[in-house]
Structures are given as C-alpha cells and as structure tokens.
Amino acid sequence: MNAPPIMTVQQHILEEQRRLRPGASGEFSWLLSGITLATKIIADQVRRAGLVDILGAELGGGVKNVQGEVVQKLDVLANHALIQCLGNRGNVAVMASEENEEPVMVPRDWQHGSYVVVFDPLDGSSNIDVNVSVGTIFSIFRRKPNPPKDRTPLDDVLQPGVEQVAAGYVVYGSSTMFVYTAKNGVNGFTLDPAIGAYLISHPNITMPEQGSTYSVNEANADSFPPAYRRYLAHLRSGGAGRQYSSRYIGSLVADFHRTLLKGGIFLYPPTRTHPKGKLRLMYEANPIALLAEQAKGAAGDGTQRILEKKPQSLHERTTLVVGSKVEMEMLHQFLRE
Ligand code: FDP
C-alpha cells in the first residue's frame, strides 16, 4: 500500500480550506468546481475539434455539422460553457470574458454574490486548426466591500491583480492539466479521462531559479525596444552562464506552462504593431503573474509588477515578461541601463 493517495482537485481545495480557513463556508470550492466542470466540457470539445466542423475561422451563421447541429466556433462554445457553469453557482455576481465586450452581470446574484470571475475561455485559439495546445485562463476576485449605490459590473471587475483571491489555467495539451493558486502555492492536476476527474500530479510547483529557455516571437525583434534586443543577444551569447534555447508556441498558456515547470523567461515586449504590448492585463497577464509569483518566479511589464497595475479598462493590453528569478533580474538590469 505504498501508492500515493488519489487526490482530486475538489478534495485538495476543500482540505486546503479546512487547513487555512477553518469555518470557511465552502463557497469558494463550489465556485472552483464550476470552472473545473466547464473546462472538462471544453477539453472534450477541443479533443473533437477535428471531427466536428467547429474548428478554424467563423463558418458563418447556420452552418451545420454532420449531425445536422448548428456549428459553433470553439471559443464561443468555451465561453458559453464557462458562463453557464459559473452563472448558476449562486455566488458569482459578475463575469468578464475575452469574448464579451462588457462584463456579464448575473441578475439573480447581483445583489449578494461575493465573487467576480474574469476569464479567457480559449486562449491561443488561432492554434486550434493545427492541433497545437490551447488553454483557458481565469482570475477570481472578491467584490469590493461597501460599494457605491450606483456600482456597475465594470467597477467590480477593474481591480488590480494583487486583489485576486485565486487564479489558474487549464492547458489542453497532450493531456489536460488544471493549474491553480489560491495564494498558497501552485498545484497542478491532470485530467484522468477514464474517470473524468482532475487528479493531483504536480503538487507545490516551484519555478527553477534559472532555466535555459527564452520564449518570444522573434519575428517582431526588429521593433523591440533596444534593451530587450540587447538582453536577448546576451542570453544567446552565453552571457547568462549557460546556453539558451528558444521555444515559442504562440499559445500563452502552453508557453507559460513550460516556463513554470522548466524555468526561463517568456516575453511579449512592445512592438511596432502593439506599442503597449499585445497581451491582455485582466485575463492573461494578471492570472499568469499571480501563478508565477506564487511559484517563486516574477512577472512585470518592464517597469512595474503586473499585479500592481491599476486597470483602466476590461480589455486593456500590457507588455508581459514573466519567468525565473535569475532571468527576470537580468532583464531588469538591461531595462534600467
Ligand atoms: P492568439 O492570438 O492565438 O489568441 O493573446 C492571444 C495569443 O494567442 C496568446 O495566446 C499568444 O501568446 C499570443 O497571442 C501570440 O501572439 P503572436 O502571434 O503575436 O506571437
């Protein structure tokens, strides 16, 4: 009987709550189970993407698949799954998604719901057509106390990343993995398709202090600010004490997942087409930054911690640099010079 105990994500969340917050209502674990349920639905659809005609560019309204069902684009479907599964938890008052221009208010729970969930239902979706990993990213906030009478859903959503109570992602890769933090370290769970449960596979994830990989879209390098170009040249020249490889999938969750487990650095610097950076602060950079910091790495926008940025709008973009301690400190030296 030496086999490690089987621990599902639900069990893990409940045990953590019992340990850290005795007397907790269980509301938070109920909320997270809405996310795990939605991501199992999404994982199932992602696996079938080549079989039903739901992949690729919008096929236009009314197109039917072989079963005669109206075809839905995969990211629309993923968005619906999350909105459905979170909207009936009873404790989520507001959701905000990459897919919706405005935050989505849950009318039934608007008065008393205590949580706000922000997500990108299917990140890196341009990779779906070519069978490359995609992901779901989420960020959870408590609603601000003592709200003004005229509070809007957007007021609830626009909170800095330090206020997140939890964040995580699911990577739909060679296996489906759920990685989350409730600000007490980072844990990873792999979906066992036979029993439909996420089982702990990566407890207490810690980012190596230094890696040997950098991850950036080098096709944009000519328009990176000079300090970023000098930094990358330094890594290539062996100046950081080891030989670096470059790895870029172009799917943030997958690129970050590798960086989290193996160390190194991921960068999306300012470019000519995206002078403020391309990635979205609220549902890409914030959750990734919380995970990185909880795993003893760091995340910034070149000038400050991502988690301290005060969001001005739901879909605001930011520069993102995230990774191991050594690479991040070295980058900041170049940026200061
Ligand atoms: P995508 O456009 O495929 O949805 O922000 C979205 C994102 O992918 C990230 O997942 C990814 O890291 C980045 O954009 C890739 O951008 P580039 O193609 O400009 O490198």
Summarize the structure.
The chain has 337 residues and is of the alpha+beta class. It has helices spanning 9-20, 27-47, 74-87, 153-157, 226-236, 252-262, 281-294, 325-336; strands at 92-97, 104-105, 115-123, 134-142, 164-172, 176-181, 186-192, 197-202, 213-215, 245-246, 265-268, 279-280, 298-300, 317-318, 320-323.
Provide structural commentary.
This protein has 337 residues and is α+β, with helices and mostly antiparallel strands. The chain contains 8 helices and 15 strands. The strands form 3 sheets. Strands 2-1-3-4-5-6-7-8 form an 8-stranded mixed beta sheet, sandwiched between helices. The protein has a 5-stranded mixed beta sheet with strand order 10-9-11-15-13, sandwiched between helices. It has a two-stranded antiparallel sheet with strand order 12-14. The structure holds 2,6-di-O-phosphono-beta-D-fructofuranose. 2,6-di-O-phosphono-beta-D-fructofuranose binds next to helix 6. 2,6-di-O-phosphono-beta-D-fructofuranose is lined by residues 123-127, 217, 250-252, 255, 278-279, 284.
Structural class by sheet pairing and helices:
alpha+beta
Poorly predicted ranges:
56-61
Please provide the count of β strands.
15
Helix and strand run: HHHEEEEHEEEEEHEHEEHEEEH
Estimate percent helicity: 25-40%
Q: Could you tell me the strand content as a percent range?
A: 15-25%
Taking all Cα atoms into account, the compactness measure Rg is 20 Å
Based on CA inertia axes, which overall geometry fits? globular
Give the helix tally: 8
For the sheet with most strands, the description reads: 8 strands, mixed
Oligomer: single chain
Q: Identify the strand order in the major beta sheet.
A: 2-1-3-4-5-6-7-8
N- to C-terminal separation?
Answer: 58 Å
Q: Can you list the ligands bound to this structure?
A: 2,6-di-O-phosphono-beta-D-fructofuranose
Chain-averaged pLDDT = 92
